[in-house]
Design a protein that fits this description.
With 229 residues, this protein is α/β, with parallel strands linked by helices. Helix content is 31%, strand content 23%. It folds into two domains: 2-69, 60s Ribosomal Protein L30, Chain: A, CATH 3.30.1330; 76-224, SPOUT methyltransferase, trefoil knot domain (Alpha/beta knot, 3-Layer(aba) Sandwich), CATH 3.40.1280. A six-stranded parallel β-sheet has the order 7-6-5-9-8-10, with helices on both faces. Strands 1-4-2-3 form a four-stranded mixed β-sheet.
């Protein structure tokens, strides 16, 4: 997968992720520290011009490097020993996926699960949105909603599902729980909504009808989570 910001690459290195190839723009001395770290792990480093670097990324102003790193998704059985799991159910925007992952790591989540149809967390926009945090948490990708619901039930995790029809009186805080946040347009899948132990919503003053999914996930996670130690 591709990492195209120094910050995300530093986090990947901190988490022990293998960097295979690193393309560096001529004259970008500001990224030398992270380049040296990657080279020290055995990464192949090559120098390219700015035009070439820009052609390889979807950002208008690249930050001086592009890295190819290893990534290994986890099995759904990962949730069996977890205390806090965040489920991304049908989110369509990679940037939102990354932002939710970043918040999940901030609250100490033990795993992040994406259901089938959710934007790929390895997309460069998702990696940038997570600021590299996706490397700090086990990621379970592209799972059928029915199997996710069954695995969470088997793990004994109370299932909290965010839905516009939910109760604005939030439960918890919990020592163990799984939070499901659904797609920006359609909300959570019927399978996960029907499996919910708690269907929750955030009260909002008019005329606002909804929040960005990453903002909503942050509010809910910090409300549901037992105080961080």
């Amino acid at each position: 997968m591709v990492v195209d910001t120094p910050r995300a690459l530093r986090t990947a290195l901190d988490c022990g992720v293998a960097v295979e190839t690193l393309l560096v723009c001529h004259g970008r001395s500001d990224v030398l520290p992270v380049i040296d770290r990657a080279a020290g792990t055995g990464a192949h480093v090559a120098s390219v011009d700015e035009t070439t670097l820009r052609s390889l990324t979807d950002v208008e102003h690249p930050q001086g490097l592009i890295a190819i790193v290893g990534f290994q998704p986890r099995a759904l059985t990962t949730v069996a020993d977890a205390d806090v799991v965040v489920v991304l159910d049908g989110l369509g925007e990679p940037g939102n996926v990354g932002a939710v992952v970043r918040t999940a790591v901030a609250v100490g989540a033990d795993a992040v699960v994406t259901t089938s149809g959710t934007a790929d967390p390895t997309h460069p926009r998702a990696v940038r949105g997570s600021a590299g945090a996706m490397f700090a948490v086990p990621m379970v990708l592209d799972q059928p909603a029915e199997q996710v619901a069954a695995a969470l039930r088997l793990a004994g995790l109370p299932l909290v599902v965010a839905d516009v029809a939910g109760d604005p009186t939030l439960p918890g805080p919990f020592g163990r729980f799984a939070l499901v946040v659904g797609g920006e347009a359609q909300g959570p899948s019927p399978v996960l909504r029907d499996a919910a132990d708690h269907l929750v919503a955030l009260a909002m003053a008019p005329p606002v009808e909804s929040l960005n999914v990453a903002v909503a996930a942050g509010v809910l996670l910090y409300s549901l989570r037992s105080p961080l130690r």
